[in-house]
Specification:
alpha+beta, 4 helices, 3 strands, Transcriptional regulator
Amino acid sequence: MHSQAQVSPANVPRDELKPNKIIPASEVRDICGGISDMSLWRWLQDPELKFPRPLYIARRRYWREEDVIAWLESRPQQLEAAE
């Protein structure tokens, strides 16, 4: 079982990020503010958001952690407006 602690781009030091670390959808949802799987699916379907595309391994979705953090950092005002 994984921790429910929420991680945000602001509290993930850049030097702790591993460039090729892949994370599952559950961690992506946590990093993105505890969003639901349906919200993640909607973000993936919306071409205007340009959310990073997942990698599929054994039919499961994974993302490069660095890509998700970079995407979040590029969109602070849009995400705050949606809350």
